[in-house]
Amino acid sequence: MVRSKLIGKQAGTAFLFLLPGLLLIGFVYLIPIINVIGLSLSKGVGENQTFAGLTNYQVILKDRLFQSAFLNNVKLLVIVPILTLGALIFASILYDRIRGWRIYQTVIFIPVVLAIAAMGITFGQLLQFKGLVNEFLRSIQLGFLTRDWLGDQNIALWTVGGVIIWKELGFGTILFLARLMSVEQDLFDAAKVDGASWWQRLWNVSIPQLVHVIEFYAILLVVTVFSFVFDYILILTNGGPNNSTIVGEFFIYKFGFIYNRFNIASTVAVLYLVVGIILMIVRYQIVKRIEE
Amino acid sequence: MSRKLIDQSKGVVFGVFKQGIMLLMVLTSLLPVYFIIVTALKEKTEYVFNKWGLPALPTLQNFLTLLEGEKIFRWLLNSTLISVSSVILCVMISSFMAYAFTRYTFPGKSFLFTLITSLLVLSPVVLVIPLFRTMVAINLHNTYLSVIIVYVGVMIPISTYLLTSFFRSIPQAIIDASIVDGCTEFQIYKNIMMPLSMPAVITTILTNWLYIWNEILISLVFLQNDSLRTLMSGLALFKGKYTTDIPLTMSGVAVAIIPTLIIYLIGQRYFVRGLTTGAVK
Fold first, then answer.
1. How many domains does chain A contain in total?
2. Which residue from B22, B35, B122 is facing A98, i.e. has the nearest CB?
3. What range does the domain containing A137 cover?
4. Is B31 exposed, middle or buried (CB count within 10 Å of its CB: 0-12, 13-18, 19+)?
């Protein structure tokens, strides 16, 4: 009796502290989610809004542009293994505390903090056909590698992937390094005494110790690919050339705010919301394992 | 040669190899930043024949042109105003939430915590159409307040997560002592929890600031009046207009990234902690 009263009183105070946050979450997440589902099941907006069942979904799932947008998200997943492996190697090198490792650590994180808008404009310049990347390639006798990096529809998406790798590598490296530094040094010393090579230590000591963090980083990258590549696409290619770099987020933006087709855009938004919720659940499972 | 000597020379080669890889990494990381800075300091005419090198005659002319001709100063002001007020509000509201999650037991607590902190996975793009329609309906579009509300809402999940994980590490004994001293709940929050959690609060401030300062989509959609734009969304549009004057464009880019670079170099450890909390225990 006393206990339940205590919990009741606690719940009351807790509620007061939670209230402002809950109101904002409701306004920014809950209501929009309900509305976006409503829009996806309708034709027209506002006063002209009429229930249309699943028609929009039938249209969108057969839509070529939507299919290629989704496929482009899937293709960009190629950055997940590349970044994971790259970050592992860089973190292991830094963990050896080679000369200057603190400076390297500072520098490698710089791309992570720089604005995508600013860096996208810069990379847009560097990667032009007459840009400096091609000029550099010619100057080191690799002229046959020159490409119109962002203007050729066969490679533009991979170029965008490259820029994402440039930006994200430092985060993974620092994440893995922070975890490695909390591992018992004895484990590495023992492996050294047993004559394990650098690669063997990476494979047999570091990776098993890092396994949860690797999972965490990988799921974060999958989330990035499906939910946070809009800025790169907007600045680097604007979805082009020939829609070859369109992704889900950009599709939603274009149909919603350029073509004013709110219902179609909302339908795609709901589909990506579903992807987001699945990723949310997977991420939760991983975080829970780290906490245990 | 003895086995030991071979091993040693192998070690030296591998050491050089590791240094080589790291130097390459430094070059690739910094090259775009170098390009921005040297180009911003060049005359348009110099850039034509000297694209890579340091400017022969460094000039601040591009920055002066920016200041008079463009709205960049206004945008810088908008960005500062919006970031500062969003960050303050978000840290306040999130620290209330974190306090509730740390101090009290109530039904559904862990479910609510998981739900709220998981929202950070969702792309703002999926929310932006209905949000925009709501803002238009309540006549808030094209106001600072519209973006501030959205930024605070979007940043609550990560901020609550960061603060809660720190609050939980504060010893219960300190709180118990302050209850004995007759502190009210709000006093415990204000005089005990927040001051003891300064590192986490700074981390949260910087994480928020970084996201908001760099954000494009939300500001692009909600602030469609040219004089209300933030620096980043202004830059995104600016890009299309001045593709021929690259030094001028790069001076705009420089204005956008220099505050971030300075803050990063000063508060490096807080940034790193903010982005790695949760993954490293």
1. 2
2. B22
3. 77-246
4. middle
